[in-house]
Amino acid sequence: MSKIHPTVSKIYDQEELTTTTTNSPSVWTVWKKSSMGFHGSDGFSIYDGKGRLAFRVDNYSRKHKCFAGELLLMDGDGKAVMTLRPQVGSTGPSFSYLLRESLQLTASVACGDEAEVFMDAPDRRSSVPDFRTEGCFRRRNCKIMDRDGQEVARIIRKEVNESVTLSDDVFSLIIQPNMDAELIMAFLLVMDRIF
């Protein structure tokens, strides 16, 4: 089987680092397939720029239910990084997650294929979303922007070469410098569930 991990030189001509934050853009390959490969499982396998399994999500539900059960984001060795607990409320879907501290992440569809993400904290007073998407996640062509309008990540279709583009199940994720990859992976899971 051929490899699906990133060809870094095609997107950024520099060395990729495998950490949760970097000083240069990092390129990841996301494969919407459980690393366990069981029939009927639903999940993601996320590879770093060197082709190593960096994150994974395994969901063994036989039916794809948008808000069924917890989602566990693990590192490549299977160690839990965070748990997302989907909930549906009056403000739309929300996902509680535990990363380094307890936060509530609320995502809602703002318009068509675009979403707004609020990270609720005890002292939150702003109605401006912490993050928002521009573009179409379903078509694997979108940006994740912070509250200041700066791009923090981009999702694009995975290209093998100039004439071959892979299906929507395999795509590239480019995370900008100094952005936490674990947080972006949480957004990726949330977007997959709400879209």
UniProtKB/TrEMBL annotation:
It comes from the Eukaryota. It holds the Pfam family LOR. Belongs to the LOR family. This is Tubby C-terminal domain-containing protein. It comes from Ensete ventricosum (Abyssinian banana).
